[in-house]
Amino acid sequence: MNIEPAYTSIGSLFAYKPMFFIPKYQRAYAWDAESISDFIKDLKKCFEKRKSNSPVNHFFGGILSVKHSVPGTVNQHIPLESLSEKQI
What we know:
The protein is built from 2 helices and 3 strands. The protein is extended, with a radius of gyration of 16 Å. It has one domain. Helix content is about 30%, strand content about 15%. It starts with 9 loop residues before the first helix and ends with a strand. It is an alpha+beta fold and about 90 residues long.
């Protein structure tokens, strides 16, 4: 297994257009109302800064993704198994 840690923006990650899948052994997310409220506040702050043309960097957390090769697919469609850093 080749491990290559990298920091990337969420926009760059989705621009790559990978196919994500969540493994069955990943436990369900269970956010309480306070956690959801904090997350929405963070999103709003980032959005307001971006609207005013201020540079925005915000760390929302880590995602571990594992590339899987699938016979007959092109590289841009390699499925990524996605795991939350809090559940590893």
